[in-house]
Amino acid sequence: MAGMALLGVRMVLDTFKQALDKVKGVQVKSYGQLCSIARALDVVGDRWTLLIVRELLIGGALRFGEVQRGLPGIATNLLTQRLRDLETNGVVAREPAPGIPGTPTYRLTERGRALDGVLRELLKWGAPTVPEAPSDAIFQMHWLSQPARFLLADHRPDEPPIVIRFGTFDDGFDLTAAGTIAVNPCQRDVSPLARVAGPGPVLVALLQGAMPLPAAIAHGVDVTGDAATLTRVLPAPQASTNVPGQYI
C-alpha cells in the first residue's frame, strides 16, 4: 500500500512539473481580447513598463544602469525582462553604446515615442493626487522635466532664448524658453542663467502654480543666478495645489 501511495505522489509531482514547464515556456501574456485597449495593455500594462518608457523619453538612449537608476526599487532581472519584452514588441531598440564595446544602449523606437501622448494624459490624470503622495515618496529631479514641458510657458517670447537648469548633470534637466518650452538632459556646453534645486513637493507646487516663487524659496527651493528668469516661465499662482487643467 505504501508503495502505491508513493507512486501516486510521484505521478502528481510529474504532472505538476510538466504543467510548470509549459507555463515557463509561455513568454507573452495576453488578455486574449479583440480590443485595442487590451492589446495595448498586453504590451505596456505590466508594472514598471510605462516608467521604463518615461525614463527613455526623458533621457533618450540610455545604458542599462542609467535606466535602472531612474527606477528605484526595480529588480535587475525584472528590468532585464521588461526591456526584452519591449524590444520584442518593437517599442525599444537595443544598440551598441558609442565607444563602449559590449555595452548596449536602449532607446525608444518611433512606436515607442508615440507613447508620449499616453504619458501626457497620465500626467493630467495623476496631477491632483501628487499633493497626497506619502511624505517619504522618492523624488528625482529629472522626473519633473515631463510636467515642466506642459505646465510652463514662455511669457516673454520676444526676448532672447534662455536656459534654466533644474538639478544637476547626475539628476536634472535643462529647460529652454525660446517662444516655446523645451526640456533636455543637462548639456555641458550650455551656460544656464539660473539653476534650481530643492525639495520635490515644493518644486511640484511651484511648477503647478500652487505656490509663488518667494514662498517656494522660503520653503527650501534654492535658485542661483538670475532668479527673476523663472518668472518668464512659471504659471501665475493658483488657489489650489490641484491644478491638472494646467496640463493643456
TrEMBL record:
<dbReference type="Pfam" id="PF01638">
    <property type="entry name" value="HxlR"/>
</dbReference>
<dbReference type="InterPro" id="IPR036388">
    <property type="entry name" value="WH-like_DNA-bd_sf"/>
</dbReference>
<dbReference type="InterPro" id="IPR002577">
    <property type="entry name" value="HTH_HxlR"/>
</dbReference>
<dbReference type="InterPro" id="IPR036390">
    <property type="entry name" value="WH_DNA-bd_sf"/>
</dbReference>
<keyword id="KW-0804">Transcription</keyword>
<feature type="domain" description="HTH hxlR-type">
    <location>
        <begin position="35"/>
        <end position="134"/>
    </location>
</feature>
<protein>
    <submittedName>
        <fullName>Winged helix-turn-helix transcriptional regulator</fullName>
    </submittedName>
</protein>
<keyword id="KW-0805">Transcription regulation</keyword>
<keyword id="KW-0238">DNA-binding</keyword>
